[in-house]
């Protein structure tokens, strides 16, 4: 299937010639050609829903940079949108639903039967991409974690303190589990649909699990990700589809995260990759450069920090394999594309020596 | 000096009859009587600078609740203000300096010679409080950590991504160290002034250390807190003044934090206190209830969570001593004072059995 993918080989701990690298949100606002297509589409959501344009923006960073993987251009909130919640992306404010989930009836009204019919445009984008991508560049599909989707569905958008979410978790645990169970079914169907359409790896983004206590994280975020991993059809055309899970702020729970059997664990920038490798003995690691450094630092600082991460990993792992270089969170819009190019080339060059 | 302080006894691992409790920002906006005095003062900063009113608001939660310690009412930003930066607190927006530190000249212009003269109003408040507080209620003095003060001084206020701060750390490390060194001298003088005025414990609030990589946290935050702890005159009138350090988001670095020799380590709500006690074998721990639970939960949820924390601690520690119950971050303005009373009484009652 693949003509030697360094990304997949690193996940399976095979010998690799350099550390593979891709960047969360690598197709995005920091690229002028992305902003052009985004404007042409009319809105962010229209861009997600247009397979031709979504294919085009997915490919944009691959035309510029020597990336080792592509990630489907989409948004985690297309899932609640497909379940019937009206979604809008407001410039400089982020996503807003026109209403929040607040009652049992609201939960019952969410439609998960037709999720893959509604999300057909994503599967079409994946098929386009598979026809477009070179054979050594795998395509990563993704979904938000059930807990992270729940956050947006209960708050109606981003939030500072997640008062409503925590009110639910602490005082309506059963209703919260009911909603999470429904979201989980939708996410499993959606990711299985992505796999059938041809993605070569899947990733769960748990952007907000890190706001929880240890106890609530296990019950309301990790257990549902575990459930998803165990219910995915992680084989397609005779190939195993690796799973990646990433909880931002999850550094204190790495031992627990490693129990759910994902093939790759994402790290934000706060934990030293050496300490992570002491806790996670063998599962592949993905990360962990601070995206704010890439946005605000100079070439020299970027080089030193990438070097530090690669050195730390190699010191404890005795091999470069089992690490996928990435940012510790999505790339920021003010990032200079020249710095992105520098980082990617430097990671390849330095790790190959 | 003290008629049996449970707070101090717990720090020194003596036998105690119940787990002591105080709450970060316990004198604050969630109390209607605070808002009244704040309005009378005219502004937040004027309230900080008026020893009579600052004494009054410090005492307010002690009149209502059975707290085991008082904390000086003030703000961490009075230090940069005393160094010459004009400060304003904008309603619902937070603190703003009229300008940011951006050059070597700006650093040179900061005046640290007269810091304790400028902050005399704080020392007066402490003296008032020592004359007012009952003999079994210690008074906690505090300062922001040098790194946290640096964040506000470079950004000019709160920030989302700390682009400017990280630009400095990554690309101007020497200038950053120059500024941090100057801030550290001021903080040492200020805290020694607080000790001479009568505080019974001191706390360093490192609200933003958690935004850093492991490497930068050590170099730019922890090392300066270490320096402060080693330079404080932690004895007064024959009594040892315990030091408390708290890095929000510092759960992954507890082993390192424990090396600097503070007497108490603060925990936010994300780490299980049982896991913290496995890493920090003997130093007293402070925390770790989620302030959002106190603001958004009901009595039953608050009880269950307080119970969980106390049980977890007792399971691993075989004694209730060495733990000071607190929130994992400051109390939120929308918190119901009745819930605060419930929490305090429940912690006392449950831990005494």
Care to describe what's here?
- Chain A is of the alpha/beta class and 353 residues long.
- Chain A has a single domain, classed as TIM Barrel, CATH 3.20.20.210.
- In chain A, 50% of the residues lie in helices and 13% in strands.
- Chain A contains 17 helices and eleven strands.
- Chain A has helices spanning 6-11, 32-41, 44-49, 51-64, 78-82, 104-109, 115-118, 120-132, 146-155, 163-171, 173-197, 214-231, 254-257, 273-279, 291-296, 299-317, 337-351; strands at residues 70-71, 87-90, 94-97, 139-144, 201-206, 235-236, 239-240, 243-247, 264-266, 284-289, 323-327.
- In chain A, strands 1-4-5-8-9-10-11 form a seven-stranded parallel sheet.
- In chain A, strand 9 (264-266), helix 14 (273-279) and strand 10 (284-289) form a beta-alpha-beta unit.
- In chain A, helix 2 (32-41) packs antiparallel against helix 4, helix 14 runs parallel beside helix 16 and helix 16 (299-317) runs parallel beside helix 17.
- The longest helix of chain A has 25 residues, at 173-197.
- The mean pLDDT of chain A is 96.
- The A-B interface holds A 161-164, 166-167, 170-171, 210-215, 217, 249, 251-252, 269-272, 275, 290, 292-293, 295-298, 300-301, 305, 308, 332, 334 and B 161-164, 166-167, 170-171, 210-215, 217, 249, 251-252, 269-272, 275, 290, 292-293, 295-298, 300-301, 305, 308, 332, 334.
Q: Can you give keywords for this protein?
A:
11 strands, globular, homodimer, TIM Barrel, two-stranded antiparallel ribbon, seven-stranded parallel sheet, alpha/beta, 353 residues
